[in-house]
Amino acid sequence: MKRFKIIFTGLLAASCVAASVIFACGDAGAPPQPAPPAAEAAQEPSAEAPQEPPAPEETTESMAAAPAPEPVMASPHFAMEEYRCDCAGHCDGWPAAMDPELLAMIEELRCACESPVIITSGVRCEARNAEVGGVAWSFHKRGHAADLYCPGMPVGQLAALAQDVGLNILPYYSSGYIHVEN
């Protein structure tokens, strides 16, 4: 609002200077202008800065933020957003669709764990795959792979459960996650 006052005051001052120059110099070839009626002449601009209008009162309804939209779910425990490519703008997030069969198997794994499973990487674009050191034939680029972990569960136990639901796995014991694909 302070910025508005500064800009408005500057514009008002510039207008006054321009009007003064025009009035002082006059227009040599222009016919004389009639004097303004007495009512208009009596209304002199105030020397005070204009007052800003009062802000409308906020109601409880207008102060409440709009609810966030519900996420699009890939399965009962996973939002599609969890599988999105997390590159730095090289793609729109979906260079390939996630395989529905893989999504169903990961949901089955989550139910077998009886605990949340965190997806750290789903589908990847070529740039993101190269950035993380993925192989050229990565199943991530086709939507047929995901990297995941289950907090508090050892990698070996999670890998065994993943195999039990039919997933092909590659455990990364030192990093604490498994790669699953179908």
TrEMBL record:
PROSITE patterns attached to this UniProt entry: PROKAR_LIPOPROTEIN
Name of protein: DUF882 domain-containing protein
UniProt KW keywords: Signal
Domain called Peptidase M15A C-terminal: residue spans: 76-180
Pfam families xref list: Peptidase_M15_3
Compositionally biased intervals (Low complexity): 38-50
SUPFAM superfamilies assigned: Hedgehog/DD-peptidase
Gene3D superfamilies: 3.30.1380.10
UniProt signal peptide: 1-24
Record region (Disordered): 33-65
